[in-house]
Amino acid sequence: MARVVVDVMLKPEILDPQGQAVQRALPRLGFDGISDVRQGKRFELEVDGPVDEAVLARIHELAESFLANTVIEDFTVKVEEVAEAVK
Amino acid sequence: MARVVVDVMLKPEILDPQGQAVQRALPRLGFDGISDVRQGKRFELEVDGPVDEAVLARIHELAESFLANTVIEDFTVKVEEVAEAVK
């Protein structure tokens, strides 16, 4: 079993009020030196069986048609080790 | 300038209704072979200046106190190349 990660972020030219809210709050909270924050979504898909080119192509299609709104969002598809420690 | 990414995911033992909704919809949409979906948040922070140990420690603190609810969520902090192409 393998894990495929789909990250969905607003396109750079689209305003991101959630990210802006975080960024503006940081100095108040004592965190300086961060000039921009963007907030997006992360999907972790557990895939049965091996992840080959065909499976990745399907997941790409799935992300494009279903997980992301490609009018306003960009997405990336990455394969991740399942054994990876999540802290 | 460098980009630091904070991924925030619900802990494995916490129910994830958003992820479940996606996972259940997939077969209906013609995508089989995905046994689990978890949905979380991704924060991209643009950091002024170099990202050294001290900056990462600060961002870790920020993520722990502000971006994640560590009662129910895990988070990871990663440095990313700014030049990276976002597709």
Automatic annotation (TrEMBL), chains A, B:
It is an enzyme of class 6 (ligase). GO terms for molecular function: phosphoribosylformylglycinamidine synthase activity. Its EC number is 6.3.5.3. It catalyses: N(2)-formyl-N(1)-(5-phospho-beta-D-ribosyl)glycinamide + L-glutamine + ATP + H2O = 2-formamido-N(1)-(5-O-phospho-beta-D-ribosyl)acetamidine + L-glutamate + ADP + phosphate + H(+). SUPFAM superfamilies: PurS-like. It is found in: Cytoplasm. Pathway: Purine metabolism; IMP biosynthesis via de novo pathway; 5-amino-1-(5-phospho-D-ribosyl)imidazole from N(2)-formyl-N(1)-(5-phospho-D-ribosyl)glycinamide: step 1/2. Keywords: ATP-binding, Cytoplasm, Ligase, Nucleotide-binding, Purine biosynthesis. Pfam families: PurS. InterPro entries: PurS (IPR003850), PurS-like_sf (IPR036604). It comes from the Bacteria. PANTHER family: PHOSPHORIBOSYLFORMYLGLYCINAMIDINE SYNTHASE SUBUNIT PURS (PTHR34696:SF1). Part of the phosphoribosylformylglycinamidine synthase complex involved in the purines biosynthetic pathway. Catalyzes the ATP-dependent conversion of formylglycinamide ribonucleotide (FGAR) and glutamine to yield formylglycinamidine ribonucleotide (FGAM) and glutamate. The FGAM synthase complex is composed of three subunits. PurQ produces an ammonia molecule by converting glutamine to glutamate. PurL transfers the ammonia molecule to FGAR to form FGAM in an ATP-dependent manner. Belongs to the PurS family. This is Phosphoribosylformylglycinamidine synthase subunit PurS. It comes from Streptomyces broussonetiae.
